[in-house]
Specification:
The complex is a heterodimer of chains A (218) and B (233).
Chain A lengths: L4 H9 L7 E4 L3 H4 L11 E4 L3 E5 L20 E8 L2 H9 L5 E5 L2 E3 L4 E2 L2 E2 L3 E2 L5 H7 L3 E4 L11 E2 L14 E3 L3 E6 L2 E7 L5 H6 L5 E2 L10
Parallel strand pairs in A: 1-2, 1-5, 5-10, 6-11, 10-12, 14-15
Antiparallel strand pairs in A: 2-3, 3-4, 6-7, 8-9, 12-13, 13-14
Chain B lengths: L8 H4 L8 E4 L9 H10 L4 E4 L11 H5 L3 E6 L6 H8 L4 E4 L2 H13 L3 E4 L13 E4 L2 E7 L3 E12 L4 E2 L8 H7 E12 L18 E4 L17
Parallel strand pairs in B: 1-2, 1-8, 2-3, 3-4, 8-10, 10-11
Antiparallel strand pairs in B: 5-7, 6-7, 8-9
The chains are: A alpha/beta (218), B alpha/beta (233).
């Protein structure tokens, strides 16, 4: 069965390593914070200016001066720090953040990503996404494999305006874990009960399948 | 000590004129200069170029200045929370320059720091790079971004003293320190205004040299954009 959003977040959480600073984007990536593996200490950076971001506040304890990049009220954890936006992006561009997890509308087999604009329909802006994808060494994209019409979002080439070029390393979808390698999307794992053929049919870009493909363990 | 104190938002915005470029600190509705925005609305100036990470929501923040059509051009990184903004942009009434958030922050910082331009990897290969010089450093392409300055920079701090020194609270700091540096005239509105000497010099975030006028804000609504909570166990 294909994963839901929580399943995608759980699978991405397995990528977290002890001692990492991690930036989580809006949407599915935010959920990753709920599934940190036992014994792994990570700190979450939010680009509006906090390291050491904690969970949502208890009702009645919200602070208008303490939000994340999604403008949601949050809390801080012991050891947290606040800083200005230039310092925040120094952390990001300067590669002091070890992992960036973000959502996407499309990913191409060469690692291009599009997630900020649909011409003449939706123009919200790129926020910090372009700085994040251009700078981070390790970028994982969390997304659905296909759109609501069933069309693939894993493409030979992106059709929407790009956010970054050749930057995505790994994609975790509701169907599979894919790595971007020379020549296309390399199939690493299948979602529980999802067949290789299903993944093939949902992938427009070149899918590289080598040997037996294991199922994810969640 | 050079005393920067003015009475209120009206006095703090003396000299604003139509056609000016203005910076507004804040991220979403967090750390925005609420009182100054009302004063600029009341002043009736228009044809403004506004530089701000976001454009407020329909009925708060810079949204007020969109309703009154005082903004000609908006320079921002994310504008997704505002229907009137979207309408004015899609109809061509409003000029919009969307730039990556880190580039926006650094362009303000550079403007205040006397650095006319810099190279950044953000936006290479995208619409943002169109018409910009590309240069390779350490094997990676970068694009040339230029500094931003403004006739007025409007910022909001938690505490400030008579000398214009500022302390911010939580994530309300965001763009305020860089914009304070980049304004020809920088106006700070604060929740608490204290005599010089009361703030610990070790803990000041923005030195008063970057601030020309400071006042205690009349009212702060501090509206929350996305109220997210968890249940008590």
């Amino acid at each position: 069965m294909a994963l839901d959003k929580i399943g995608i977040a759980q699978r991405i959480a397995q990528e977290l390593r002890d001692g990492w600073y991690v930036n989580l984007g809006i949407g599915i990536p935010t959920l990753v914070a709920n599934y940190i593996p036992e014994g792994v200490n990570v700190e979450f950076q939010s680009e509006n200016g906090i390291l050491g971001m904690g969970p949502f506040p208890f009702e009645g304890e919200e602070d208008a001066d303490l939000i994340n990049a999604g403008k949601q009220t949050i809390t801080n954890l012991p050891g947290a720090v606040y800083f200005d936006s230039a310092t925040s992006f120094a952390m990001i561009r300067g590669q002091h953040v070890q992992l960036t997890v973000l959502g996407a509308m499309e990913v191409a087999q060469n690692g291009d990503i599009a997630n900020w604009k649909i011409p003449n329909r939706m123009v919200k802006g790129m926020g910090g996404a372009m700085d994040l994808v251009a700078s981070a060494d390790n970028i994982i994209v969390a997304m659905m494999h296909t759109n609501k019409k069933g069309e693939s979002k894993m493409l030979k080439e992106c059709t929407l305006p790009l956010t970054g070029v050749g930057c995505v390393k790994r994609v975790v979808t509701n169907l599979a874990v894919l790595d971007i390698v020379e020549g296309g999307f390399k199939l690493i794992e299948r979602a529980p009960g999802v067949s290789v053929d299903e993944i093939k049919n949902a992938t427009e870009g070149n899918l590289i399948i080598e040997g037996e493909i294991p199922e994810m363990s969640l | 000590m050079i005393n920067k104190v003015v009475a209120n938002a009206k006095e703090a915005t003396q000299g604003v004129e139509s056609g000016m470029t203005m910076m507004f600190g804040g991220f979403g509705l967090c750390g925005i200069p609420e009182n100054v925005i009302q004063a600029v609305v009341a002043s009736g100036v228009n044809q403004l170029t506004c530089i701000s990470n976001n454009a407020g929501v329909d009925d708060f923040g810079l949204g007020f200045m969109l309703q009154t059509k005082q903004i000609k051009k908006m320079i921002a990184s994310y504008v997704g929370e505002n229907d009137e903004f979207e309408r004015q942009m899609l109809s061509g009434e409003l000029e919009v320059d969307l730039i990556p958030q880190g580039s926006l922050a650094e362009r303000c910082r550079a403007g205040g720091a006397g650095i006319p331009a810099f190279f950044t990897p953000a936006g290479f290969g995208t619409e943002v790079a169109e018409g910009k010089e590309v240069r390779e450093y350490n094997g990676k392409p970068h694009i040339l971004e230029t500094a931003l300055t403004a006739d007025f920079a409007f910022v909001k701090a938690w505490k400030g003293d008579e000398a214009g020194n500022l302390v911010f609270k939580g994530t309300a700091r965001n763009f305020n320190p860089m914009m304070a540096m980049a304004g020809k005239t920088t106006v700070a509105e604060v929740e608490e205004l204290v005599p010089a000497g009361e703030l610990d010099p070790n803990e000041i975030h923005t030195p008063g040299i970057f601030v020309q006028r400071i006042f205690k804000g009349e009212t702060f609504e501090k509206r929350i954009e996305q109220r997210t909570v968890r249940a008590k166990q």
